[in-house]
Amino acid sequence: MTAYRNYVGGEWIGGEGVSTNINPSDTSDVIGEYVQASRDDAHTAVAAARAALPNWRLSPIQQRFDILDRIGAEILARKEELGRLLSREEGKTLPEGVAEVARAGMIFKFFAGEALRNSGERLASVRPGVSVEVLREPVGVVGIVSPWNFPVAIPAWKIAPALAFGNCVVFKPASLAPGSAWALAEIISRAGMPEGVFNLLMGSGGAIGDVLTGADGVDAVTFTGSDVVGRGIAARAVTTGKKVQLEMGGKNPLVVLEDADLETAVNCAIQGAFYSTGQRCTASSRLIVTGGIHDRFVEALCRRMRELTVDHALAPGADIGPVVSQEQLDQDLAYLDLGKEEGAHLAFGGERVERKTRGFYLTPALFTGTHNAMRINRDEIFGPIAAVIRVQGYDEALETANDTHFGLVAGIVTRSLKYADDFKKKAAAGMVMVNLPTAGVDYHVPFGGSKGSSYGAREQGSYAREFYTTVKTAYTLP
Ligand code: NAP
Ligand code: MG
Fold this sequence. Notes:
478 residues; alpha/beta; Aldehyde Dehydrogenase, Chain A, domain 1; Aldehyde Dehydrogenase, Chain A, domain 2; 2 domains; 20 strands; binds NADP nicotinamide-adenine-dinucleotide phosphate; binds magnesium ion
């Protein structure tokens, strides 16, 4: 088997051995072997990006538009094939994989346009005759570190704005899902950029991530992943003087008030808590339900959960694919045990199941009788596990929703305009959903959280410019 290589300075290069990419739906299915970059390779990639920067930062915006548009068009044209690869390596269902790839394509198209729309300001000076311009310039060389759970969309929403605004990129994808990242990099490598503008480094977070957050040649680091790793990256980036942006986990509440439409509430919970195997930073893991609807909601939710098909990610009719890895499965099972020890009632699921192929299959799980101080309601589990917290009314629901260290997204299901409006104002989260699942966002508006979920500028939409550009103030006396 030939190994998929890293892309550094315009060439596909070997490295320090390979890592084997396994299909979590079928552990006998090997997707490929992926070269692991060395620390030296990482330094070479940073130097290549640095060398490419002086020309690329001044490249014509039409050139950047054309390149990004071409990348987006190819991704969209190949969404079935790339979606299949994504589902095969990550374990989300095929429709979810295809949708994620399509989203990545749309993101490149969006940022092609953003390259054209990058504007500045011109102001009068307080000194007569002088004019002042406020200009947006690229931040420089950007290190990108991404997680496995959106192996195409997250890299896309970091790489596309970086390139659109004239930055050079060194991209390190997650080790668990390098196939999608490699396919994306291969498309980018043919899009017409000068060598060194874009570099791919597959390899361990500890080694490669460490170089990206420490090297002098890197100006900014954008990271999506876990809380613990993110905090370490921020600390290091600050001591080496880099701009840094972090998107981390969530412990997202979905509030269900008794005036809710029951079907909407159940749909939001099913989609938000269990689709993509619950492996989403925007997953609804805490279902905060008022007394008047609690029993009806739990009963209807369990009924719907029973109808969900857990199967091979590529199997027709699968609603939920496997957990991504043995390690993540062990973590999910440990939290299921912990929930029981803490006194929560496992109302449904949480069973390790077998399918035709050997994979990491777990049925979606629902705890009831939980309270917000339990660890299953504090820690991000990152699996198909949700917990119901019963509350008396709206005020307690709001207080409970906000009682968490995270703040990515908060949802409410209600027919009351008054409560919906109040929740939009008072939910301590970067995103609020009314009568919609907490997971599932548009690609042209800002994405990000408050409190422990995010740090630094927002991602996506026109707000991405805050991170990927820096401001220059120019004074002129003609
Ligand atoms: P992770 O373990 O934090 O890894 C994320 C990335 O960081 C990977 O590429 C990893 O490389 C790399 N890394 C690990 N140690 C590093 C270090 N010391 N220095 C630099 N980089 C390092 O997270 P994950 O398990 O891939 O993803 C799951 C987490 O991502 C969850 O907590 C989830 O909530 C979060 N997430 C957040 C968002 C959001 O936007 N808020 C979106 C999606 C996911 P290796 O793969 O080689 O270890
Ligand atoms: Mg894999």
